[in-house]
Amino acid sequence: QVQLVESGGGLVQSGGSLRLSCASSGFTFSAYAMAWYRQAPGKERELVARIITSSGRTIYGDSVKGRFTISRDSARNTVSLQMNGLKPEDTAVYYCHAVVQTTEYWGQGTQVTVSS
């Protein structure tokens, strides 16, 4: 059974930093890409960052390039998102995501709130 469990959200002031983590289980971690998405109130869910866990190759959404860094720890089956220089517009629920053998899986989400 595939499970994705996020942690690390919270409230932070503008310009601050947070680190999100996604613990995964139930599939071969190194065989699939992992990603972070976010959804703000009244907006569509958008890609924040994706990592190919086998190679470490990364892709970022335009709005977070240069501020956020996605990484993986294959020994712990964990993907992290380091968020620096946070802005109020980064406020959203952040979701961990994986596609395993054509099936999409989402974590429960973790709230990130950035105050101005």
Structure description:
With 116 residues, this protein is mainly β. 0% of the residues lie in helices and 56% in strands. It is built from no helices and 11 strands. The protein has strands spanning 3-7, 10-13, 18-25, 33-39, 46-52, 58-60, 68-73, 78-83, 92-100, 103-106, 110-115. Strands 2, 4, 5, 6, 9, 10 and 11 form a 7-stranded mixed β-sheet that branches. A 4-stranded antiparallel β-sheet has the order 1-3-8-7, with no helix packed on it. It is globular and about 40 Å long. The termini are far apart. The mean pLDDT is 95.
Brief synopsis:
By secondary structure, the protein is an all-beta fold. The chain has strands at 3-7, 10-13, 18-25, 33-39, 46-52, 58-60, 68-73, 78-83, 92-100, 103-106, 110-115. The protein is globular, with a radius of gyration of 13 Å.
